[in-house]
Each structure stands twice: as C-alpha cells, then as structure tokens.
C-alpha cells in the first residue's frame, strides 16, 4: 500500500449547533462535546505505561462502548512490525518519543503497510509546528501532545468520526427516582417541556415505565401506539416509523408513550432499548428518558450510556441510602463524565420529619441541583388538568426551577445584558427631590 492509505486530516468538527437566537442563551464553556464513536476497531501502540493507562481508561467510556480497542506497547516500530503481517484496523494510535526525522521515517514505513481508509493519530512529546505540518502532509489525522487525558483523547477521536456538516447526535437525559413515588416522572416531563420551550428545539419524552407510565396523562394525550411497538421490533424502527409512533404535544415536544395496560408481559432487552434510543437521538437534539423505579440490566444500560442523569429523591433516610448507592455506582462506571444531578423533591412537607438539603449534600458529597418545596395544590391541579407547572402557574417558584434545570442539563445559561445608565438617569433621584420641594 502507499502513503495515500492514511486518511486526509480533517478540520475541527463543529460538534454543537446554535439552538436558540444569539444573545438569548449561551453555551457553557466547560461543556464536553464528544459524541459516541461508531463501531470501529482501534489499536494503540504506546511507549510509556502512563499513556497506555490513559488508553485503557478511555476504553471504559460510554462513548467508546461500540468500539473494539486493544492497547500494545512498543510505539511506532512495534506497529510497523505488527502490520507487515496483519491487516490494519480502522484507527491506529501511535505514541512516539522519537525526534522529528526518525518519527517521520517510522511513519513513512507504517504508511507502506497501511490499508486504505485507516486513520492514524500520533501522540508525541514535542510541541513543534514544523513537525505538525509534516504530519498533516503525510495524511495523519491528528497530532496530540503528551500527556493526554482520557477525555482529550475521546474528544479527538469523536471529531474524526463525526461529519461537521451533519446535525449533532442528540443528547439522552435519563431521569430516575431514588425511591418510588418521589415525583421523578413529574420532574422529567416538566423539565423536557421547559427545554423545548426555552431552546425552541425538538425534544422527545420516552416513557419506559410500560405498565404504569404517566406521560400520556401528564400531557393530556391518549396515543394508540407508542414505545412498546418500537421495543418489540427495534430493527424495524426508522425515521418514518418513529414519526408514526410519536405523539406531538406542542410545536417542539413529542412523547413516546407507554401502553399502560396490564394484560401484557413487558420484557425489555438492553440491546432493544439501545437500538430504539439510538434511532430517536439520531432524529432529535434531546431525548428525556423517564425510567421506572426498578433495577434491571436495561435500566443500568440506559443510565451508564446517558449523557446526563437526574436522580430525584425525597428528603428521607431511604431516599438518602438509595441515592448514595446510585451515585456511587454511576461514579464508578462513568469516570469520564460529570457527576449526576440530584434533585430533592417535596421538601418542607408539613408535619413530616425530614433530612435537610445541607445534610443530604454532605452525606452524598454532591450539591443538589434543585430543591423543590412541597406544593400539593399547584402540582395536583396541574396534573389533573394535563398541564405542565409553567402552563398552569407560570409564577410558581417550581416553574422557574424547572427552567433552570433545563438550562443546566443542556449546558446553557441566560445571558444577562448590562444596562448602561445615561447621565440623566443617575441624577433621577435628585430631580425627584427638587420637584417635591417645589
């Protein structure tokens, strides 16, 4: 093979897109934009144990769940020797400490035994612009300077396999209660609605509580078909079928409703759930997944693969224990992701002993994203009317809290414009006093 076997270097991928009018909201600068990497094979050849450790840490990330990654030692020379006898994978990651001339020589040798379509990422130890240009001329896809972090590596690989001209893959936001009856579904539905209204972007609520889901009731809808049909034959689900199964509730919000009938047995496989959510996220920017309070392989899979997680808990001991177990497990399995979002619901319920939000935060080592006070009248009437809190009582404190949660989950914040006061405005109080004296 020739050097043309290397893929041509790509420009930086435009991973995000503006979802709201400029000046209204802005994206949080710390938001990680790495997207899922497709089902590819990746082979890495490292020189240092620390870099090999970074590669191993990255393999456990949810965004690399579909990829097959193997890590070897020996650097560029080991890669050349290996591929003289074996076909090359979709992507090769090479760490090298060689000086410029030797590095380029080794990469020229590697190019001779590379298959067409193979991409190469080089991790070097020299910050050299001339070297970088020489690597790009040879078709190297990316040059990273050591030391790298798992997240840096994942973002670089994600940019290689996501077309900047296409819409970004949608975010999956999973909502689960630390205990049954804590209002996780209410939080999910109100947050999803607020998200669709603020961002003016399409949102789908996927109700996975097939037997007892409340999505249809909360949005005052009675769909004939929904998510159960998609889960029965996930391989048939495409954009056309998805459009038929979704129920539109507003201009930007649709629901994937649960059947809520008890004469059927509901056995969901983790793979079927994966396929369905993957199709949905390919078609809309945000998918809010309403998970039942149960513990099954598919629930775990959804939580481990979600982009954001909201745990709703009431302020009592059982919720504290369950929330701690959930948060600890998610920290262990989502090392490269930010912490889960804790929402304390139904706080300050009259005549009920409860754990304060401060004590909750200390015990879980996490600050609650929102603390929503008990308000049975507003929530009860809104639910009976099939309305969201902001539709029913726009001035309610909880309505603003759901808006704030929606902005947090989408990594947006409101831009506050500073008003410039004119010279006359600053003298307004004095002018008023003069008028009164007259």
> What is the overall shape?
elongated
Q: In which range does the helix fraction lie?
A: 25-40%
The profile of the biggest β sheet is: 8 strands, mixed
Can you tell me the CATH topology of the largest domain? Answer: Rossmann fold
Number of strands: 15
Helical element count? 18
Structural class: alpha/beta
Spans of 5+ residues with little confidence (pLDDT < 50)? Answer: 1-23
Our Rg estimate from Cα atoms comes to 26 Å
CATH class of the largest domain: Alpha Beta
**CATH superfamily grouping of the largest domain:** P-loop containing nucleotide triphosphate hydrolases
* Largest sheet strand order: 9-10-8-11-7-12-13-14
Domain tally:
2
Mean pLDDT: 87
Q: Give the termini separation.
A: 95 Å
- Strand percentage lies at 15-25%
* Named CATH architecture of the largest domain: 3-Layer(aba) Sandwich
